[in-house]
Automatic annotation (TrEMBL):
The lineage of its organism: Bacteria, Pseudomonadati, Pseudomonadota, Gammaproteobacteria, Alteromonadales. Keywords: DNA-binding, Transcription, Transcription regulation. Coiled coil: none annotated. This is LacI family DNA-binding transcriptional regulator. It comes from Alginatibacterium sediminis. It comes from the Bacteria. Residues 4-58 form the HTH lacI-type domain. InterPro entries: HTH_LacI, Lambda_DNA-bd_dom_sf, Peripla_BP/Lac1_sug-bd_dom, Peripla_BP_I. PANTHER family: HTH-TYPE TRANSCRIPTIONAL REGULATOR GALS, LACI-RELATED TRANSCRIPTIONAL REPRESSOR. GO terms for molecular function: DNA-binding transcription factor activity; transcription cis-regulatory region binding.
Length: 339
């Protein structure tokens, strides 16, 4: 079946090609009822503007590119990857429906030169804007894009001196509330597991953890109370080292449900009862913890909504909205422990 064109719409409506073209662009010289009729027929026929023609006329690619951790393998043998990435991509895509834009995804392993893909997108001109994830406090990618005046938005914040567009989950608030919940249960010897302190959100989680400790009169330090997942050989070794150095650890906060599951298994193999000997709290992208069979408190971040906002805000920036007006911070939603 031939692809619908402006001529197809013209044949159905009886309007000239000029009128059809102007109506599809909401031209002020075209009557509203004519615009409505043309668009209804265009939708019925499945008409889509020719991307190559659009690029020639506008100089735009009508592509946005997202560089995200599709399968970041942190632990040896881990093959599940980031549970939030699939919903994030879905959210990114859903926000583009009804626009001329399409999504391109480049996987970020978190290793090697993270500038390589960013430079490629900018220098090749294959996209009109970029979405970055896993930001650092002094992110070279963000600095480069700002200097190039290339439209971009980050999932996460930096500590750079200039404004840039971002959407972020408040990880200070998450860790503070998670730790506070443990203190309310009488858990005063806590540990927090973070992915990698080179990322801003992990620094924020440690800040929230420290804030809760200060309010409850507990002294904490990174060497004893913080565990970087990237430096752990295995979940078993994490539990062995933690229990051998201090058998009284009674609460652990996790950056995600996969890490929580790995440590849970190791704890249970060592005869620990969750909810009695020790309590676990985790950040989550899914409701996977509901299937663990033990009471685990979780804080949910809606990556579908995150993706939707990232795409929407990037398109607004491409259309000229200032970066300082494109900064949003949201909190996670508490889900109480249950079995």
């Amino acid at each position: 079946m031939a692809r619908p064109t402006l001529k197809s719409i013209s044949k159905r409506t009886g309007y000239s090609l000029t009128t059809i073209s102007r109506a599809l662009k909401d031209g002020p010289e075209v009557k509203p009822e004519t615009i409505a009729k043309v668009k209804a027929i265009a939708q019925e026929l499945g008409y889509r503007p020719d991307p190559s023609g659009l690029r020639l006329r506008t100089g735009k690619t009508f592509v946005i590119c997202a560089i995200i951790p599709v399968i970041p393998v942190i632990q040896p043998g881990q093959t599940v990857g980031d549970l939030g990435s699939l919903r994030l991509v879905k959210g990114l895509t859903e926000a583009l429906k009804g626009t001329n834009y399409h999504l391109m995804v480049l996987p970020d392993s978190g290793t090697g030169d993270r500038m390589e893909d960013v430079r490629y997108v900018v220098e090749s001109g294959i996209a009109d804007g970029l979405i970055l994830n896993l930001t650092s406090t002094d992110d070279r990618r963000v600095r480069y894009l700002h200097e190039q005046k290339f439209p971009f938005i980050t999932f996460g914040r930096t500590e750079l001196s200039f404004d840039h567009a971002f959407f972020d989950v408040d990880n200070i608030d998450f860790a503070y509330r998670a730790s506070s919940a443990l203190y309310k249960k009488g858990r005063f010897n806590q540990r927090i597991v973070v992915s990698d302190l080179s990322y801003s959100y992990c620094v924020h989680q440690w800040m929230g953890f420290k804030r809760a400790a200060l309010e409850h009169g507990v002294e904490v330090n990174q060497q004893q109370h913080l565990i970087e997942e990237a430096k752990i050989p295995s979940y078993d070794e994490l539990v062995v080292s933690m229990q051998s150095s201090d058998e009284t650890v009674d609460g652990i906060i996790f950056p995600g449900e996969i890490t929580c599951l790995g440590v849970l298994s190791s704890l249970q193999k060592r005869g620990k009862t969750i909810g009695k000997d020790i309590d676990l709290v985790t950040l989550e992208n899914s409701h996977l913890v509901d299937f663990f069979g033990v009471p685990i408190t979780s804080f949910h971040q809606d990556t579908l909504h995150v993706g939707n906002r990232l795409s929407t805000m990037l398109l607004e920036q491409i259309d000229g909205k200032p970066a300082e007006d494109l900064q949003e911070l949201v909190c996670t939603n508490l889900r109480e422990a249950g079995v």
